[in-house]
UniProtKB/TrEMBL annotation:
Protein name per UniProt: beta-glucosidase
Nucleus among keywords: no
PROSITE patterns xref list: GLYCOSYL_HYDROL_F3
Class of enzymatic activity (EC top level): hydrolase
Species per Swiss-Prot/TrEMBL record: Flavobacterium aquariorum
SUPFAM superfamilies reported in the protein's UniProt record: (Trans)glycosidases (SSF51445), Beta-D-glucan exohydrolase, C-terminal domain (SSF52279)
Length: 739
């Protein structure tokens, strides 16, 4: 039997190797036929004129340039009809090299999933992978070969609008989610329901000074390796086909021409074989950075550093040929970039059939199909975080006679898409289930729902308050849906003030006077500052932006058809002045916990703890943790510890719990965080059920980057913590690592 398996493995390996050999041979043969101008064409990417996801320079000559083989990829072209039209132009070029079509399919294509930060709150890697799989299936059915996702930027700063697009503040959770998303998007790359992933933004874009988008990033290489690079490496380990560089300068060198990032790390140490696309215009923007004098120098710096494809800056298009003629850029550099791009086009099967992804029947079949809608509803429900449920107002009884559903987020559809919904032209919101529709679907005729908008999102008018109070007076329960509009987080949406805009909080205070139970739904793309609400309102649900099935998923949770299980992927600040705020911080020489001392690392006007901590989220049931056992209390480098713990559902309904395992390395050659997430398991328990779960602590989980950037563990004591959040540690133990 064993012999058979070995033989099969050998055969498969030879086959795979020969396949790759074939691709490399084809690439080599094609490259030999290409003129320098055609090679440079492959490094050039333009957007369609329909949609700009950046500052656009209109160029009405693109179609002619495609016919001449001067463009290798287009972005923001959607649909089998339009992609076919563009591909037909490419087929008129001398060598008939097919175009690559890229698009920001960040959280769904036609079926929209929750924004990525919301998905991260589910801590459900299987469902997150499924969400990406559905997005890829629909995008690929619409002619798309390549999504500019996953965005894997760690961020500890909710002022930065793009936190909505990532997986939050934690490196371990972010790495697991990056891996899952790449696997979901790429599936079996080359299939017609798969798209290339593009890991972005390389690197450290989420650490922009002041939370201001595109701003500078300055950090030690140790911090870069320890906190910001691991999700990129995880995505690469998942087989990511492409990377995208970031807009920011990192330690003074723009990412687009950052040799350390692109050559030393990505293509060197990590041996990345795919290709790197610049972010929109970022190569040309190095002139603004003051890193280069002009686009010609920008092209030189970027191609030399390892940026393979130029999105929308024209730097490569109009300068590379001259740079080669001036012997400033060796043709070998151009060839390497071209080979990386051609290899992907061969692997996708585009040379065999350039219209492989342009199948109109598949396009009709795949969009918004019931299976996808079901997946979106499940992902949305799992992304919802229950922040407070004092007096057990939730779940609502299905016997309620009258509900007042109030607020500016109740009826709009578009907002539920969140930012980065696929809306190259105008978004098709018809199939979005609004929060109002979701409640109607849930209660049917048995419950009367009264509506009042109450106020606008950003307006300061209180005209609607009277109407709101009127419907509230007629209802047994008030549901109030508020927040920030979808386009107030996302790219170029940094905010200095994270409080609820307009008079929404005033509306809450007015409704609070009725004395009626109020369920508050907060819709946002980022952690908001909700200090007063959190202190004064007993029932709060964070609903982010949940996508197509928002209304149904919210109703599922409100009525207990789904017991909320989300856990915050980011710390919620009490006020903006606390930012950056994150759970895995260092202890300092004068720890803030020393409440009785004057001299401590703390604010004199505010606690240093967040309003809601990383990993926090409630359920309609409760969980008891017990019987923490370690297989050994002392381990050597090559050994591991098996940790087991019992989790019991001590409540009255079935529920899911994210059991979190944290470590603290007590002493290190560089200071270590007071707590670090090192593993988690999301488990489902029926009421009264107990499960024993196990974790393995191996040397990898004890390792970190020392001052010499060596990754490894150091002997010493470790605290082990098992908790329901980073601030709700239920069981503790310790162990020692010995030489
Ligand atoms: C944007 C974004 C990037 C996106 C690209 C193409 O500026 O920074 O994430 O993929 O341009 O739309």
């Amino acid at each position: 039997m064993k012999k058979t398996i070995t033989l099969a493995f050998v055969f498969v390996s030879i086959f795979a190797f020969s396949q790759q050999q074939t691709v490399d041979q084809k690439v080599k043969a094609l490259l030999k036929q290409m003129t320098l101008e055609e090679k440079i064409g492959q490094l050039n990417q333009y957007t369609s004129n329909d949609a700009a996801t950046g500052p656009i320079t209109i160029n009405n000559n693109k179609q002619n340039e495609i016919k001449k083989g001067l463009i290798g990829s287009m972005l923001n072209v959607m649909g089998t009809k339009r992609t076919r039209q563009y591909q037909e132009l490419a087929m008129q070029s001398r060598l008939k090299i097919p175009l690559l079509f890229g698009l920001d399919v960040i959280h769904g294509y036609k079926t929209t999933f929750p924004i990525p930060l919301a998905e991260a709150a589910s801590w459900d890697l299987t469902t997150i992978e499924l969400a990406a799989r559905v997005a890829a299936t629909e995008a690929a059915a619409s002619g798309i070969h390549w999504t500019f996702a996953p965005m894997v930027d760690i961020s500890r700063d909710p002022r930065w609008g793009r936190v909505m697009e990532g997986a939050g503040e934690d490196t371990y959770l972010g790495s697991k989610i990056a891996y899952a998303r790449v696997k979901g998007f790429q599936g079996n790359l080359g299939d017609v329901n798969s798209v290339m992933a593009c890991v972005k933004h390389f690197a450290a874009y989420g650490a922009a000074v002041g939370g201001r988008d595109y701003n500078s990033v300055d950090m030690s290489n140790r911090m870069l390796w320890e906190t910001y690079l691991p999700p990129f490496k995880a995505a690469l380990d998942a087989g990511a086909a492409t990377f995208m560089n970031s807009f920011n300068d990192l330690n003074g060198i723009p990412a687009s021409a950052n040799n350390y990032l692109l050559r030393d790390i990505l293509k060197g140490k990590w041996n990345f074989q795919g290709f790197v696309v610049s972010d929109w215009g970022s190569i040309g923007e190095m002139v603004n950075h003051g890193y280069v004098k002009d686009n010609k120098e920008a092209a030189l710096a970027s191609i030399t550093a390892g940026s393979d494809m130029d999105m929308e800056s024209n730097a490569y298009r109009y300068n590379l040929e001259q740079l080669v003629k001036e012997n400033k850029v060796p043709v070998a550099l151009i060839d390497d970039a071209v080979k990386r791009i051609l290899r992907k086009k061969f692997e996708l099967g585009l040379f065999d059939d350039p219209y492989k992804f342009c199948n109109t029947e598949r396009e009709q079949k795949e969009m918004n199909n019931p299976e996808h809608t079901k997946a979106a509803r499940e992902m949305a429900a799992k992304s919802i975080v229950l922040l407070k449920n004092e007096r057990d107002v939730l779940p609502l009884s299905k016997g309620l006679k009258t509900i007042a559903f109030i607020g500016p987020m109740v009826k709009p559809k578009r907002d539920n898409h969140g930012f980065w919904a696929v809306d190259v032209k105008e978004i098709d919101s018809t199939y979005i289930v609004s929060q109002w529709e979701g409640l109607e679907n849930k209660v049917g005729k048995r419950t009367k729902i009264l509506y009042a908008k109450g106020c606008g999102v950003e307006s300061n008018s209180k005209e609607g308050f009277a109407d709101a109070l009127n419907v509230a007076s007629q209802a047994e329960v008030i549901i109030l849906s508020i927040g920030e509009n979808f386009n107030k987080s996302g790219e170029a949406k940094s905010k200095s003030n994270l409080h609820l805009p307009g008079v929404q909080e005033d509306l809450i205070k007015e409704l609070q006077k009725t004395g009626k139970p109020i369920v508050i739904l907060i819709n946002a793309g980022r952690p908001l500052v909700i200090d007063w609400i959190a202190d004064n309102m007993p029932t709060i649900v964070y609903t982010w932006w949940l996508g197509s099935e928002a209304g149904n998923a919210i109703a599922d949770v409100l009525f207990g058809d789904y017991n909320p299980s989300g856990k915050l992927p980011m710390s919620f600040p009490r006020i903006e002045g606390q930012i950056p705020i994150y759970y895995n911080h260092f202890n300092t020489g004068r720890p803030s916990v020393n409440e009785d001392k004057i001299y401590k690392s703390a604010y004199i006007d505010l606690p240093t703890t967040p309003k809601f901590p990383f990993g926090y989220g409630l359920s309609y049931t409760t969980f008891e943790y017990s019987d923490l056992k370690l297989s050994q209390k002392t381990i050597k480098n090559n050994e591991s510890i098996t940790v087991s713990v019992n989790i019991k559902n001590t409540g009255s309904v079935k529920g899911e719990e994210v059991v979190q395992l944290y470590l603290r390395d007590k002493v290190g050659s560089v200071v270590r965080p007071i707590i670090e997430l090192k593993d988690f398991q999301k488990i489902t328990l029926n009421k009264g059920e107990t499960k024993t779960i196990q974790f393995t602590i191996d040397n990898q989980k004890l390792s970190f980057y020392n001052n010499a950037l060596e990754f490894g563990s150091e002997p010493g004591d470790f605290d082990l913590m098992i908790g329901s959040s980073s601030a709700d540690i239920r069981l503790r133990d310790s162990f020692e690592l010995v030489k």
